[in-house]
Every structure is written in C-alpha cells, then in structure tokens.
Structure prediction request, 193 residues.
Amino acid sequence: MTIEDFVVRVATEEDTPFAQAICDEMAESAKARGTGIAKRTAEYVSSKMREGKAVIAFHKDGRWAGFSYIESWGHGDYVANSGLIINPQFRKLGLAKAIKIRTFFLSLKRFPGAKLFGLTTGLAVMKINSEIGYRPVTFSELTDDQMFWHGCESCVNYPILLSKGHKNCLCTAMLFDPSVDTVKVSKPDDPNL
Prediction:
C-alpha cells in the first residue's frame, strides 16, 4: 500500500457520517499514547466538514483513512490546524503529511494573512510541521483568545497548563506567520486549495 492508494481532499457534508468514527479514533489514540487531546464531538467535527474547514482522506476502497480541521481564533488573526488523526490501519504511509499539507494550504486560502499554529506532543507532527515551514514558539506568540484555551480543558495535561498560567505545557507550540515565514512544500494540485 502506498500514498497513491488514497484520496485526500477538502471534506464536505457528504463526509459527516464518518464524524463519530473520527472522534472515537482521536480519543483512542490519545489514550493509547497517554497524551492529551482536546476532545471534540461528532457534531463539532461534522460542522467543520459542512463549513469546508476540514480535510479528509479515504482509501480507494472507501474506508475512512485520516482527518484534520481548521479553527479560527482572535477574529481570524490566528488559525489552528487541529485534530490530525490517521486510521491505525493506514499509519506510516505518509498520509499524515499529505493531510497536514492540504490543511495548511486550506488555512492559507480561507484565512489569508492569518498566523497558523498548532499544539502537539507528537514528534512526527513536529517534524511534518517543520518540513512545511512552521517553527517552534513560546505560548505567548499564540492567540490570547480564551475560547481556544478552553478547548484544552479535556486534555489530561490541563492542570499543567493552568499551573503555568497558560505560558507553557507539555505540548510544543508551532507557528507559521505568512508575513515572515517561508512555505517549504509545494501546493497540491487541487482547485479547492
């Protein structure tokens, strides 16, 4: 099996039946890794699909393979690329990178000029983000929108974030500021991006 066996595209209303499976896998994956993750409901994930603010991947046989979504904060000045999850059957094939790249370019299109960021405890995601053009930053360079930080409350590491006054946690913050950072990957040939 190779990356060519998958279709990676902007999600639509038609993909909403997969929302619960995506949420279940996000929770199971975080539990297996013993790391934190902001829990999302199937309705929340479905709303991202309907709004065209998500990227989804399918194996050529129709099985759900991966997902990520975008959320804007601070009146659209900041955009988080979040919820990256790969179906365990399809890990280690380059699918996470393909999804992250499409999510990145979707973010640039939907929110021109916004600073793109993410929080992660995963080395693989940090590596992909660096390859795209993100750089590690302190939490002070991220949005100060309290609704964003509210999303961290379901994370097992939330007490650490609170004890540090929202200044740091176990996650690594990564930022792409289009006014100063350089895109390091090619834009996929996709009219939706």
Q: What stands out?
A: The helical segments are 19-33, 42-50, 95-110, 123-132, 146-150, 158-163.
